[in-house]
Design goal:
The protein has 179 residues and is an alpha+beta fold. The chain is built from 5 helices and 8 strands, in the order H-E-E-E-E-E-E-H-E-E-H-H-H. It has one domain.
Length: 179
């Protein structure tokens, strides 16, 4: 019989909360990851960031979005870039109490961390990601980051490359069906 694993217990609570919002757990190297289809070619993703440090359980949840045609185009790029459109620490979207790390001081099975995560996803993250789930919105986000005028809480890594690849995809294909 396997011993008590508080990290796994917290991840299971978080997964249950995410499943109630339509997320599904997927394999992701060694991390807990869940995804939710926003539109056929757009996915929201969630990394729980659950870890044990000392006697405490910490959660550093990250939420973001993938645009699948862009991800496929970036995966074959020789510089091995990150492929997501954007990401953000979930707690940065909580306008009432901005945070990056949630510290569980009680028994992991009794703590309400999973419900806090579910609430922030429902009230802030998912509506924001749905509003970004248009090719032109993604292009604007990349342009805003490239030109240092972004006001979004969502970060973009390798924005120049992503904008270049997205513009190439736009010139080669009609993305009207994705909007």
């Amino acid at each position: 019989m396997e011993g008590f694993n508080p990290v796994r217990q917290v991840e299971e609570k978080v997964l249950t909360a995410l499943e109630s919002l339509g997320f599904e757990k997927v394999r992701a190297r060694s991390q807990f990851k869940a995804v939710k289809k926003i539109k056929p070619e757009f996915e929201a993703y969630f990394f729980s960031g659950v870890m044990k440090r000392g006697g405490k359980i910490l959660i550093q949840p990250v939420v973001g979005m993938d645009f699948l045609p862009l991800r496929r185009a970036l995966e074959i790029h020789e510089s091995n870039p990150t492929t997501q459109v954007c990401h953000c620490y979930l707690g940065l979207l909580d306008s009432s109490n901005i945070w990056t790390t949630m510290e569980l001081t009680k028994n992991a099975l009794e703590d309400d961390g999973a419900e806090v995560i579910r609430d922030i996803l429902l009230r802030f993250a998912l509506p924001e990601l749905v509003s970004l789930s248009f090719v032109e919105k993604i292009k604007s986000l990349f342009e805003d980051v490239v030109h240092h005028r972004s006001t979004s809480q969502f970060a973009v890594i390798q924005e120049h490359l992503k904008l270049e690849v997205l513009e190439r995809l736009l010139s080669e294909n009609s993305f009207g069906r994705f909007n």
